[in-house]
């Protein structure tokens, strides 16, 4: 079913998308018409069901037009991370073999290098077709399990993997989010999350469009501007990653503005530091944390706002139409509040990794998605994400979860940001290293050690503290642990 056309019939004049940077406002009728225009462009280039359409562009309304156009004819939408190097993008293009590349003008040189004069290139703001058959309908010859989009992972553990999301997965994530979170057609969200990432596309944007609400698109994130826009556009719900909230809470606007239309501020992408919770509580602003990954939705849990304020760090309980369990290293469900790997099952789960059967088989077993994240469940049935399985530090035979140390460091009034990693060590197996930045005067290493010893067992106290002016970030705003580990290991070799 072409559901954006159906939504255009139901909510014809309702505002679907507001593009802040490019000053565009699209009703659902407009969005459907523009999607039809892109279909005609695709057909003029002989794009058919199953062909990949790659797009390299920053956040803008056209990405939704192209996404829905692909959905109308069964083509596969492949948004590219424009922050990647030419070499990294070349790998992705080779992997997914698109039939067309659509580019934003400022990325023309990258797009030209990727096409190598063999792939057709189309400008996103100046496509060749201007006449549009506004009432054109397209026959849908695809099935629910067919691919709609391929979202490439960040490649933090190696080469990027192409996560294949079917029509079924995208639609069921939307249904699950609407039903479990109680979304209505009156929702307005402000999205600065990159639209080459599942968080930008599927966390809130698609569910809200599916339900007839409004998506406000921001391009480059500026904390003060984002806070002002929440009020300007009367937003009701918005998702930001913890580093964005960290920046927002340092502005005058956060302290001075009221947000009368906001039902909830959502945090995702990484565990949220407790000081962020504290500042929302102090302001009396509704705040809660979520959990997801590209391979699953990305929405999987729900927690009421009042309960989130009581159970800091919990992502809540599983949503209506998915199942979760926590298992040990032998695949058996753990008892009580024991820590184990989180597994997820549901119609919102991805189909496969594109051209990577080995990784698919490792991640999907008997219908269960192995998330690679450790979690625990409390006595009331609320879930907590402990950390990435690959990030767990084994030092002197003891398992250490970095998030526990990070949360304690971040509660120190002098520390601005902190992250913890494990570095190979001949004596300990791995040694614990903490990277920290400060709000003002730098703390000495012995002060940091004594502070950690107040709360943490001796084997959990970092062996090293590395001060930095600023911690490096990934394109989606997470602290880049891979880059930090690389910096330490490279230093030890010189």
Descriptive notes:
The protein is α/β, with parallel strands linked by helices and 494 residues long. 33% of the residues lie in helices and 26% in strands. α2 crosses α3 and α9 packs across α10. The protein is globular, with a radius of gyration of 23 Å. The model has no long low-confidence stretch (mean pLDDT 92).
What's the tally of helices? 17
CATH class of the largest domain: Alpha Beta
Strand order of the largest sheet: 2-1-10-9-11-12-13
Biggest β-sheet description: 7 strands, mixed
**Total domain count:** 2
Overall morphology: globular
Fourth-tier CATH superfamily name of the largest domain: ANL, N-terminal domain
User: What is the fold-level CATH name, i.e. the topology of the largest domain?
Assistant: Rossmann fold
Query: What percentage of the residues does DSSP assign to strands (E)?
Result: 25-35%
Structural class: alpha/beta
Instruction: Give the radius of gyration.
Output: 23 Å
Overall strand count:
26
Q: Look at the structure and give the mean pLDDT.
A: 92
Helix proportion: 25-40%
Q: What is the terminal separation in angstroms?
A: 59 Å
Q: Based on the structure given, which CATH architecture of the largest domain is correct?
A: 3-Layer(aba) Sandwich
Which spans of ≥5 residues are poorly predicted at pLDDT below 50? none
Protein name: Long-chain fatty acid--CoA ligase
Keywords: Ligase
Pfam families: AMP-binding, AMP-binding_C
Domain AMP-binding enzyme C-terminal: 404-478
């Amino acid at each position: 079913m072409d559901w954006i056309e159906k939504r255009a019939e139901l909510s014809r004049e309702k505002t679907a998308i507001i593009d802040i940077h490019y000053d565009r406002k699209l009703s659902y009728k407009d969005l459907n018409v523009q999607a039809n225009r892109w279909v005609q462009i695709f057909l003029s280039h002989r794009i058919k069901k199953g062909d990949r359409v790659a797009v390299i562009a920053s956040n803008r309304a056209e990405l939704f037009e192209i996404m829905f156009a692909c959905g109308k004819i069964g083509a596969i939408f492949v948004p590219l991370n424009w922050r990647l190097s030419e070499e990294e993008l070349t790998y992705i293009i080779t992997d997914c073999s698109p039939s067309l590349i659509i580019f934003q003008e400022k990325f023309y040189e990258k797009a030209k290098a990727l096409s190598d004069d063999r792939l057709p290139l189309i400008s996103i703001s100046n496509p060749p077709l201007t006449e549009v058959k506004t009432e054109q309908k397209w026959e849908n010859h695809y099935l629910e399990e067919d691919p709609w989009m391929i979202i490439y992972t960040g490649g933090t553990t190696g080469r990027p993997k192409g996560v294949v999301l079917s029509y079924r997965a995208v639609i069921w994530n939307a249904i699950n989010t609407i039903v479990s979170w109680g979304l209505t057609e009156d929702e307005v969200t402000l999205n600065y999350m990159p639209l080459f990432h599942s968080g930008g596309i599927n966390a809130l944007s698609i569910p809200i469009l599916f339900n007839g609400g409004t998506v406000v698109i921001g391009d480059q994130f500026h904390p003060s501007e984002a806070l002002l826009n929440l009020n300007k556009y009367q937003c009701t719900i918005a998702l930001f990653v913890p580093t964005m909230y960290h920046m927002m809470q340092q502005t005058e606007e956060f302290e001075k503005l009221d947000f009368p239309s906001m039902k909830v501020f959502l945090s995702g992408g990484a565990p949220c530091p407790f000081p962020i919770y504290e500042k929302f509580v102090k302001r009396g602003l509704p705040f809660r944390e979520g959990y997801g990954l590209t391979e699953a939705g990305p929405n999987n849990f729900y927690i009421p706002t009042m309960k989130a304020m009581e159970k800091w760090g919990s992502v809540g309980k599983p949503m209506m139409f998915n199942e979760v369990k926590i298992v040990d290293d032998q695949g058996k469900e753990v008892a009580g509040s024991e820590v184990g790997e989180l597994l997820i099952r549901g119609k919102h789960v991805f189909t496969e990794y594109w051209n990577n059967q080995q990784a698919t088989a490792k991640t999907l077993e008997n219908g269960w998605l192995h998330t690679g994240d450790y979690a625990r469940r409390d006595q009331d049935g609320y879930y907590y994400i402990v950390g990435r399985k690959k990030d767990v530090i084994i030092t002197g035979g003891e398992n250490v979860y970095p998030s526990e140390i990070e949360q304690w460091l971040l509660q120190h009034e002098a520390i601005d940001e902190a992250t913890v990693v494990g570095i190979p060590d001949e004596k300990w197996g791995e040694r614990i290293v903490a990277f920290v930045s400060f709000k003002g005067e730098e703390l000495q290493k012995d002060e940091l050690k004594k502070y950690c010893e107040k709360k943490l067992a001796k084997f959990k106290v970092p062996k090293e503290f590395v001060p930095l002016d600023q911690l490096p970030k990934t394109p989606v705003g997470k602290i880049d642990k891979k880059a930090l580990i690389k910096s330490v290991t490279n230093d030890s070799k010189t």
